[in-house]
Amino acid sequence: MTRKLYALCGTDRTRPFSPHVWKTKLSLAHKGLGFDVAPIGFTEIPKLEQGATKIVPLLRDGEKLVSDSFDIALYLEEAYPERPTLFSGEGGKAMARFVEGWSQMTLHPAIGRIAIMDIHDSLEPVDRAYFRRSREERFGRPLETVAEAGKTDLETFSAKLEPLRHMLKFQPFIGGERPLFADYIVFGALQWARIVSPHRLLATGDVVSGWFERCLDLHDGLGRSVTAA
């Protein structure tokens, strides 16, 4: 059975950049499940699978369609219980929910401002127009003004990683000795930045950099299959 993962890309369809898609890519690899990537642009999302979703990732697994990276992870855990666990029990699910909230409320907004023009410039013209319109409506100001504010985010980003930095003093992964879905959540955010923007958010020698490098090496180097910007 061929699985299809719809993944958000820019002009270069070999460089999927969505943080949520990367969570799912590593989740599928963690489970040892093969899949094909179907690259799409922003404006193609409403047309997928007869309007099945407004967001990506969207996974087709046989007759099953699942969207939202966390829902996909829960589906994979239930559908393939004999394969390596993504959560290691209910506590792992609860931990992943907390990590997701921290990542999306703390890391994502900062990365979004830091990389906003890099994302815009990587898109096809039709997607650039959509991206500018939708993000300027969201922020209430021009993209260029958002990018200017992103300079402060770049200066303060390292401090946002302090909770992760503290945890990694005691264990190699958020999941403990081995990665779990919680690791893929944070990895997805930092991989997004790595792929779309030349700005480097992690300092050499930082314990978080070491963790990120270990995550890039997971599953036969899946994270390294797309080079840094």
UniProtKB/TrEMBL annotation:
Cross-referenced SUPFAM superfamilies: GST C-terminal domain-like, Thioredoxin-like
Lineage: superkingdom: Bacteria
PROSITE patterns referenced in this protein's UniProt entry, alphabetically: GST_NTER
UniProt domain GST N-terminal: residue ranges: 8-84
Keyword terms of this UniProt record: Hydrolase
InterPro entries in UniProt: Glutathione-S-Trfase_C_sf, Glutathione_S-Trfase_N, GST_UstS-like_C, Thioredoxin-like_sf
One MF term in the entry's GO annotations: hydrolase activity
Pfam family, one: GST_N_3
Name listed for the protein in its UniProt record: Lignin beta-ether hydrolase
Protein species of origin: Sinorhizobium fredii (strain NBRC 101917 / NGR234)
